[in-house]
Amino acid sequence: MLDAAALLALRNLPLVARLIAEGGQAGLHPSRRRGAGMEFSQYRPYQPGDDLRRLDWRLAARSDRYYIRESDVDTRLTVRLVLDASASMNHPDSAGVSKLDYARLLLAGLAYVAQQQGDAVGFYAVQATGLQTVPPRSDAGQLQRLYHALGAVQAAGSLPGAPTLAPLFGRQGSTVTVVLSDLYDLEEGSQLEQVLTHLRAAGGEVMVLHLLAPNELTLDYPNTATLEDLETGQRLQLDPAQRPEYQRQLEDWLRRTEQSVRGHGLDYYRLLTDEPPAQALRQVLRRRQGAPV
After folding, report:
1. Where are the beta strands (DSSP E) in 29-163?
2. 114 membership: H or E segment, kind and range
3. Which of 275, 252, 287, 98 is nearest to 182 (CA)?
4. pLDDT tens by residue, 141-151
5. Which residues span the domain enclosing 145?
6. What phi, psi does 270 have (nearest 5°)?
7. pLDDT digits (tens, 9 = 90+) for 135-181
8. Which one of 44, 74, 104 terminates a domain?
9. pTM across the whole model
10. Which of 34, 48, 111, 234 is the least buried, fewest Cβ under 10 Å from its Cβ?
11. How far is CA 185 from CA 120, 131, 231, 268, in A?
12. In degrees, to the nearest 5, what angle opens at C-alpha 129 toward C-alphas 112 and 181?
């Protein structure tokens, strides 16, 4: 499993997406399941409690035995990939991989997985200037549209208000919405909090991928470093004596952030940019399926 820096060095997002997806070795959902669908799959012996409408009476008349017709039920989904493209996503880790670059890799891998399962997949970049959209489709050219949009997106400014993002909030059916963000704006009443509230109200399944760089957690910088908020421009001189207090506040913020996401009824996953993207994808998909990681 290659790390993000090695994958970015390939400069080939379609190839990287396939490598990540194959390394993940899991899907968003079983592509087919047995049930009362439209496409015949097999017979099985009747069991008490089975729906008699699925019993094959002609076969019963010929064989004097009772069999149930099983079919393949189509479980295809609409998968919506939502990327936070605010300025804080430009933050690099110690290897020089920004959260935005890591997000490109991970979402490209997810798009490949969805397309391989026949799902309609779309992409939404939430930017200060509005919402960049590649509407969900399942045709052969959709991955190239998504890769182009992922490669072109730039992170800047802060998140727009919820009214700007109205196309995300229509009623959803068999939909999985994957939101990838560093969640720095997630406070009560914030723009991001309103977005999560609207997504929950729209229905469908929502997965929130909380992406962080390890140096944000450890403050692994020289003692003389000056820290700058990428969205407000505010600067702060790093004081080594304040690291324990920073760690305490950070742990409190991480706990409150996870509680807030789960409190909206959404699935929460925390990821770090030093983790190979294929490994991160595997963990997310297998946890979603309830399988051991």
Report:
1. 32-35, 39-45, 67-74, 78-84, 120-127, 130-137
2. helix 99-116
3. 98
4. 999 999 999 99
5. 4-30+76-288
6. -100, 130
7. 999 898 999 999 999 999 999 998 887 788 888 887 777 889 999 99
8. 74
9. 0.81
10. 48
11. 30, 17, 10, 16
12. 45
